[in-house]
Hints:
Blueprint: E1 12-13, H1 25-29, E2 35-41, E3 52-54, E4 59-63, E5 68-72, E6 78-82, E7 91-94, E8 99-102, E9 107-111, E10 117-121, E11 127-133, E12 138-143, E13 149-153, E14 159-163, E15 169-174, E16 179-184, E17 189-194, E18 199-205, E19 213-219, E20 224-230, E21 233-239, E22 245-250, E23 255-261, E24 266-271, E25 275-283, E26 286-294, E27 302-305, E28 310-315, E29 348-353
Parallel strand pairs: 1-22
Antiparallel strand pairs: 2-29, 3-4, 4-5, 5-6, 7-8, 8-9, 9-10, 11-12, 12-13, 13-14, 15-16, 16-17, 17-18, 19-20, 20-21, 21-22, 23-24, 24-25, 25-26, 27-28, 28-29
Amino acid sequence: MKTRTLCGFGVLTIVSALPWASLNGAESSGAKAYSVVTTAKVGGAGGYDYVSADSDNRRLYIPRGNRVTIFDLDSLKSVGEIADTKAVHGVAVDPQSHHGFSSSKPVVMWDTKTLATIKSIDVEGSPDGIFFEKTTEHIYVLSHRAPNVTVIDAKEGAVVGTIDLGGAPEQAASDGEGHVFIDVEDKDNVAVVDAKTLKVTGHYALEGKGGTPAGLAIDAKNKLLFVCCRNPATCVVLNAKDGAIVATLPIGAGTDGAVFNSKTMEAFSSQRDGTLTIIKESSPTRIEVEQNLATKLGAKTCTLDPKTNRVLLIAAEYGPPPAPAPGAAAGGAGGRPARGEMVADSFSVLVVGR
């Protein structure tokens, strides 16, 4: 496959006539709107990045800097942790072998039933995102530095290969038929990988419709990719078979995660600005923003519990930012707003449902 031009699809741009803050197609269509049904202050020190639900085993994994904290997915009560995971960003679980993996250096592998550590796996690069590909039972460890992807056999915990994407990956998704899609943040494209050969077979360019892709979700049945971008804040919907642009939709600012619920035919994009954008796929050619839900400032990553059809997010409260040093520019790293220290025990899990 190659970077392509449009092929057989028009570009469908959906823009609401209402102000962004009041987008709420769910209510206008008669469907019950989503809301934050539970907020659990689980506390604890340490930073955070990705959140991951293991729906089969009813566990919720949340990395906290030097450890992975684990909660009961129904009660949100603590059930343990995986210690000594250095600079951990995310977790992926193989429900078949019951093995869990941390996106850290080294990668830590554990038994998801007993939480006993099985082994540590040396990897190169700088592990960030992580993804489980079920048809091959492979774990994809994503890195902004080469190698961009390290692939691990989930049963044995052995490195089976690496992949050069030509840029920095953020999130991955699979169609269940041997194709893995990975959004490349600094190249504004989606890489297509053959899951068996671990070779890149093409790139789908976003063609200026979206930039800095961070969240990625897939409707595997209808072969649609929901590519959630930061600059501009847009979800670009692609045909997964050829990369043709099907729709462009407005989302909130600072997306860093996306999921798709095949039961409700909805995609969710979580944003740093404290919004969750919900996109309804009524048909493969009728896709629109259904609702823009206020969540919590900084709740930029999300995970889906397909058993309950609920989406979970994580966030914390912060104190005022320190005054900049004399002559220094205001603001935080990467153009993000500066913030102070995390308020003690303010770290929370948000549960979104109908």
